[in-house]
Design goal:
Elements (H helix, E strand, L loop, with lengths): L2 E9 L4 E11 L7 E5 L6 E5 L4 E6 L1 H7 L11 E6 L8 E10 L5 E2 L9 E4 L5 E10 L17 E7 L5 E10 L27 E7 L5 E7 L8
Parallel strand pairs: 1-9, 7-14
Antiparallel strand pairs: 1-2, 2-3, 2-8, 3-4, 4-5, 5-6, 7-10, 10-12, 11-12, 13-14
């Protein structure tokens, strides 16, 4: 299916990056749905912002059926979260989604030769985080640049014109490191996987959160696996 897309990620300029992301919308089909995925999950998990106003984060049906669905459970269990389109946080502008990346998460060796063209964002200073905002604006919102340019000091990553005439803006800015607390948990594994599959790999954790105005956020974090954990 034809599409318009932007790909983006954070790198530190010293050969390391965080997760990379793809945001896209179908082209030429008369719909203005928008999708977001972490590219390294291979499309098995994505956020969907449908023109109906029914938004969600879900596993793909194929992945859920093969690796997750307990016996007797319906496929509805593949939805991690469902919510209505948030109200406008400024006249004509909806904050659709946030991605927050702590400075410590920029630790994956960068091999740009294996990645498609990507818009790279400078990594945040130590002790800080980078927030990427996806905003949807009404048509012809004005000529003052992009949403948040002046009041929030954001930098533009890219735009997606939607078939409704609206525009999706991807912007970024540095924020204070959020207090995520300390979490310990026993992992639950996908069908056919075990603790052995974690050995010798780089660990990442996506934390999902809700914001006061109704939008959602993903925190792209690193995970410490201790040898005495069982």
């Amino acid at each position: 299916m034809p599409e318009r897309s932007i790909r983006f990620g954070i790198q530190d300029g010293q050969g390391h990056r965080a997760s990379t992301w793809k945001c896209w919308t179908p082209s030429g089909v008369g719909k203005h749905d928008v999708y977001l995925c972490n590219r390294h999950l291979g499309g098995v998990l994505k956020a969907s912002f449908h023109q109906s106003g029914q938004w969600h984060i879900s596993y793909s049906t194929k992945f859920f059926e093969e690796f997750m669905r307990p016996a007797g459970q319906s496929s509805a269990g593949r939805f991690i979260d469902q919510w209505p389109r948030p109200t406008e946080f400024a006249p004509g502008v909806t904050l659709a989604f946030r991605i927050v990346t702590p400075w410590s998460s920029v630790n994956i060796p960068l091999d740009s030769g294996k990645l498609p063209p990507t818009s790279w964002i400078p990594g945040p200073p130590e002790g800080k985080a980078t927030e990427i905002d996806l905003l949807i604006s009404e048509p012809n919102l004005g000529s003052g640049g992009w949403p948040g340019k002046n009041k929030m000091g954001t930098q533009l990553i890219g735009t997606l014109p939607l078939e409704s005439g609206e525009v999706l803006w991807a912007v970024h800015h540095v924020i204070n490191m959020p207090n995520l607390g300390k979490h310990r948990a026993r992992p639950k594994f996908y069908r056919g996987r075990s603790i052995e599959d974690l050995k010798g790999k780089r660990y990442r954790l996506l934390l999902f959160g809700n914001e006061e105005e109704g939008s959602r956020v993903i925190y792209d974090c690193v995970v410490e696996v201790r040898k005495n954990d069982k």
